[in-house]
Amino acid sequence: MANRLSQIATRTGDNGTTGLGDNTRVSKDSLRVHAMGDVDELNSHIGVLLCEELPAGVRELLVEVQHQLFNLGGELSIPGYELIKPEAVAQLDAALAEHNAQLPRLAEFILPAGSRAASLAHVCRTVARRAERAVVALGAAEQIKDAPRQYLNRLSDLLFVLSRVLNRMNGGDDVYWKSERMVRMAQE
């Protein structure tokens, strides 16, 4: 069993460094720490989304996503280690197909709005995109596995789809962008 935290305030980070899972120390502004922090923030936002009323299947899916995001953070904290498996990406692909199949096709852009749960899913989506960009930046500087980047890419897509599902939960709909071009086209 791995070491568990027995003391939170160690003061070892007072000099601007933090310890990775392999016991090396890096600057708190390193690309790796940024990526870890963005994944942690995403997991926290999903925790807030889980406070909302959700369909049971969506809740179960998001709880599993939280566990996988913890694995992803662990993988990022140990250079060269692998915790996110291709099966986790495949699980998101399957969830995407399942939830997207029940939605009408989009004819226009939608705003990140609607119900509180849908809006929170949109916040999670944007944080997932930021985490993905951080992982891409880390991958450009250091060798990392493909699965973390792929997982975040699929997850942001899934969160978009789930926002649409959640907007329809109680008979609602997407909030459509009112583009001036579309208004002009409708008037012609």
UniProtKB/TrEMBL annotation:
Residues 1-25 are annotated as: Disordered. Coiled coil: none annotated. Residues 10-24 have a biased composition (Low complexity). Pfam families: Cob_adeno_trans. Keywords: ATP-binding, Cobalamin biosynthesis, Nucleotide-binding, Transferase. The keyword Hydrolase does not apply. GO terms for molecular function: corrinoid adenosyltransferase activity. It comes from the Bacteria. It catalyses: 2 cob(II)alamin + AH2 + 2 ATP = 2 adenosylcob(III)alamin + 2 triphosphate + A + 2 H(+). InterPro entries: CblAdoTrfase-like (IPR016030), CblAdoTrfase-like_sf (IPR036451), PduO-typ (IPR029499). Gene3D superfamilies: Cobalamin adenosyltransferase-like. It is an enzyme of class 2 (transferase). Residues 8-165 form the Cobalamin adenosyltransferase-like domain. PANTHER family: CORRINOID ADENOSYLTRANSFERASE (PTHR12213), CORRINOID ADENOSYLTRANSFERASE MMAB (PTHR12213:SF0). This is Cobalamin adenosyltransferase.
